[in-house]
Amino acid sequence: MEVPVLARSYCRDIAKGLGALTIGVVTRPFGFEGRRRAVQADQGITPQGKSRHADRDPERPATFSSR
User: In whole angstroms, what separates CA 48 from the centre of its chain?
Assistant: First the structure.
């Protein structure tokens, strides 16, 4: 089920105000799901959206240390 953009923004703002750690998972459709879904996914995953709403670039995984 897709969550409307307004609801996502609202939830994000509440979590940020509480200082909560939030994790967003972004996926792209499989090739057999069609071009329309791929285009919609690409429109939803934009560089502007990443920098405006995320602390990390999802295309660049975080590195962790055992120290």
Answer: 12
pTM of the model: 0.42
55 neighbors 61 (Cβ within 8 angstroms): no
Q: Mean pLDDT of successive 10-residue segments in the chain (67 residues)? A: 64 84 78 90 64 55 59
What is the rounded CA–CA span in Å between residue 51 and residue 32?
Answer: 30
Angle at 18 between CA 23 and CA 9, to 5 degrees: 55
Please choose, from the candidates 33, 36, 51, the residue with its C-alpha nearest in 3D space to the C-alpha of residue 59. 51
